[in-house]
Amino acid sequence: MNKFVKTLKNIFSIEELRGRIFYTLCFLAIFRLGSYIVLPGVDPSALTESSGGMLGMLNLFLGGAFTRASIFALGIMPYISASIVIQLLGMAVPYFQRMQKEGESGRKRINQITRVLTIVITLAQGSGYLYSTIPNEAIVINQSLFYPAAMIILTAGTVFCMWLGEKITEKGIGNGISMLIMIGIISSFPTAIIQEFQTQGFSILLVVELVALFFIVMGVVLLNAAVRKVPVQYARQVVGAGGKKRTLATGQRSYIPLKVNAANVMPIIFAQSLMFLPSLIAGVWADESDTARWVMQNFSDYTSFAYNATFATMILLFTYFYTAITINPDQMAEDLKRNNAFVPNVKPGEETSGFISWILDRITLPSAIYLAVVAILPAFASMLGVSSAFSRFYGGTSLIIMVGVILDTLQQIESYLLMQNYDSMMKSGNIKGRQNVATV
What we know:
18 helices; 3-stranded antiparallel β-sheet; transport; mainly alpha; single chain; SecY_CS; Preprotein translocase SecY subunit; transmembrane helix
């Protein structure tokens, strides 16, 4: 406890870090306030609550703004969709690949294209949201005036959320876009745990649920931070070869950290976005076919065996697919060769690429199984009697996003603390230099 208090004191003793935390809290407060401002011309009492599926997941990410028909009803999700599209184009289209290699100028152009695509996606998603989610009885003004005005407001709200995310990244702490998603998820946690307490009461069952949640979170933290270290040896280099005395700098040993969960949460997002298709397609023939009715019934229930088996299988496939398109062993082997580095006992070039691919194939399988298990844990929790609102925190996309964002934020805070300690040691003169060269 004393160490925790000391760490807090150290955090708030650094002026820059204290200012960044303050800016982050202010920007997050603005985001949460906007999620409660309802679109002009909408009667909040006539709105219906989204129960599950993609709408329920979107509402969870947006902290309830989706079902409240707020000005931030779409939040940052169109920007996320645009970023995923640009990322996939960067892996397949040579034009975007060239921009990625152009350094800062290329990143600026990609960011500009992403912003424009965000507006286009917002207009498409906004029209679908207004016409399919907001009932006519909730609109209290002329509908011919409401829809154009609401489209402009929703688009402006998404652009403002995108600006908030960029400002958090620039002036705050952590990744701004991820912070906005995380705060939307966490905002529903107090309500969910209060509802669970009202349902279960202060009983052994509630204690068991909280203990199980704790160990699940710890497991996700461990697996999310797990890496496979590939050892790398840098070749020795001659320094001062033109003088009378030459020195040979000893080669350094390092490693390539290959994340076990390299795909992160993307396979779950891809699989979740496709899981509504079977019930949607089967609904066309539901009146004519028993099979179609069975598919529609089972794939509309996220606790059914068919739904979870299909969901887990798709996650396994998407994990291998996304890892394959995001990590290029050939490029990694080429970069090592260009920097005079090599993997011990492995020849540079093609053999190094094959060795890295061999490792990736073996660490991707446990990663895929882990993602599949985490994704279906909320269904098991719900079947065991946990309320639907509270069971969402037992796994799935929300838990992985929260753990990832919190870990990244803590790493940034730790880097500030290490820098502060380094500056203190430099001023006190406690650091001694050490040469790592051999005379030849």
